[in-house]
Amino acid sequence: MLSPKDIAIEDKNVLQEYLGKSESSTYNFTTLFMWAGSGKIQYDIVDGCLVLFFHGRHHGVGCTYPLGNGNRQAAAEKSFEFMNRQSGSPHFILMTEQMAEECGAVFGNKLRIYSDRNNADYVYLSDSLIHLRGKKLHQKKNHLNAFLNHYDFQYERLGQKNADECKELFLNWKQGQKNHGSGLSEEATVRLLDNVDKLGVTLGGIRVDGKLAAFSAGEPITDDMALIHIEYADTSIRGSFNMINQQFVQNEWSGFEFINREEDMGLEGLRKAKMAYRPVRMVEKYFTEYEGT
């Protein structure tokens, strides 16, 4: 019998054994912990595999395809029955290409598999984000130069002691938005900032006249890729978002070839902003719909 449990910070080591190193932002403990508030994401260990449960996604509860070296087929079948009992419409979500192939082999015509463009991760070359070369990134370079022409700044490695300062900047940013279409909720951001040290993420910021003007948080996810979890800036300072984007990668992630800046969640403004930085590729994700027996 499956028994989903809430994700706590103390679960990091247990879950990390199953998550391993993945290019997908979904299969990262920090990502899961950030968004797990109020039981939105839960987990269970089934037949030696990790299964993640997402509540309220699509309809009812959706599961990830099992991760790990246990009996994935048995775990998948039990997850399928669990979802069927919960909503009558079992569906696996946020699957990698390998998971989608295995899921198709196990369930055949019961499930139809679709590409999930809204949740595909954007991947960039770190060198491109640092130097902004070429005509396609000319506008981004102009914003960066405008910042440099008007402000003296300092980049600073931040830490847990700066969490309240970062929260204040985030809340000021949020209040200035006509709609909170960035998709980054206050709860998720606060969960990360309250646990910077325990999560092991890197936090960096830029200061203008001694005041925090922007900050970002990220961590390595593979040997050649870093993942950016959050990024906020004072929008009254032109180019502040461009500057923290460039400075964070230059100071913390220049040794990694690729930067994963997560998905756009189907939000038009966020998609436009992410495409403007010219991703080199996407980390594709997939979901299923129940076709019946």
Automatic annotation (TrEMBL):
It holds the Pfam family LPG_synthase_C. Residues 23-287 form the Phosphatidylglycerol lysyltransferase C-terminal domain. InterPro entries: Acyl_CoA_acyltransferase, LPG_synthase_C, UCP018688. Signal peptide: none annotated. Gene3D superfamilies: 3.40.630.30. This is DUF2156 domain-containing protein.
